[in-house]
Write a structure and sequence with these properties.
The chain has 9 helices and 13 strands. With 276 residues, it is an alpha/beta fold. The protein is 31% helix and 30% strand. The strands form 3 sheets. The protein has a 6-stranded mixed sheet with strand order 5-6-7-3-8-9, sandwiched between helices. Strands 11-12-10-13 form a 4-stranded antiparallel sheet. Strands 2-1-4 form a 3-stranded antiparallel sheet, with helices on one face. The protein is elongated and about 65 Å long.
Length: 276
């Protein structure tokens, strides 16, 4: 079963258009949604969660349309964690017990301890990183099958980010679980994701298995003359300076005489975005 199926969704706002976007996330996998600020990541996620209605297209989660009952199966952390500002953690947990039918108090207590969150301070006094940790603790504590995380590593120090990535890997060891995560920290997504989707100016540039992307594309440093001699379709992004030329290329379309080094997901996105 696919955890997420998005088919040709589109949404228009004044000065911005999303889509059409189509992508699929199989169960047991993690999909990383990459894009610059304003690329449409949050718009896509909010459409997925029913927080805004697409102008066209279809969405299914865990094999069915989004419904009130299905929300119990989805753990959500948005870039702004919206919780009552004057409440302490234990007061917030009481609300969560009534919000989710499968609430797990023991698991929540473990995450609060793991994230070193203060139980006697009001939510409004939390830093952005602390708020994000609390949102993650809630998302992971009600037996969700699908996690949808919008910039969850924002404001977290490198050690906690690494712990979070380990948690997501553990979560998807269950083949009935899946994760959609957006982040501007591309190196985090490269470590943990099975699939990568690139959004740029509201358009989906690609959605593919990470390992296949890393196998298919490479980084080429050469002369501008050599670069211009290649098939146009072989080049996914380029930069030409007074010192020479460099490009992201499709290895299958470039002669083997060229010395092509491995590419990172971040390089692939940056060069493709510039070309786009």
């Amino acid at each position: 079963m696919n955890a997420i199926e998005i088919r040709n969704i589109a949404k228009k706002y004044k000065g911005f258009s999303l889509g059409p976007v189509s992508l699929t996330l199989p169960s047991g996998c993690i999909l990383g949604l990459i894009g610059e600020n304003g690329a449409g990541k949050t718009t896509t996620i909010k459409a997925l969660l029913g927080m805004n209605r697409p102008d066209s297209g279809e969405i299914s989660l865990l094999g069915q349309p989004l419904s009130a009952d299905l929300r119990n199966e989805i753990g959500v952390v948005l870039d702004e964690v919206g919780l009552p500002e004057n409440l302490h953690i234990r007061q917030i947990e009481k609300i969560m017990k009534y919000s989710f039918r499968n609430w797990q108090s023991d698991a929540f207590a473990e995450y609060i301890k793991k994230f070193n969150l203060p139980e006697n301070k009001r939510f409004k006094t939390f830093s952005k990183g602390m708020k994000m940790k609390l949102g993650l603790a809630i998302a992971l504590s009600h037996d969700a099958k699908l996690l949808v995380l919008d910039e969850p590593t924002a404001g977290l120090d490198p050690l906690v980010r690494e712990e979070l990535l380990d948690l997501l890997n553990d979560f998807t060891r269950d083949e009935g679980h899946a994760v959609l995560i957006s982040s501007h920290i591309v190196s985090d997504l490269e470590k943990v994701c099975d699939y990568i989707a690139f959004l740029h100016k509201g358009q989906l540039m690609l959605c593919e298995e990470k390992d296949r992307l890393l196998e298919q594309y490479g980084f080429l440093q050469t002369t501008e003359e050599n670069l211009n001699a290649l098939e146009p379709d072989a080049i996914k992004g380029r930069r030409v300076t007074q010192y020479g030329a460099e490009a992201i290329v499709d290895r299958t379309r470039v002669p083997q005489t060229f010395d092509i080094r491995p590419v990172t997901i971040e390089e692939l996105f940056v060069y493709m975005a510039k070309e786009g």
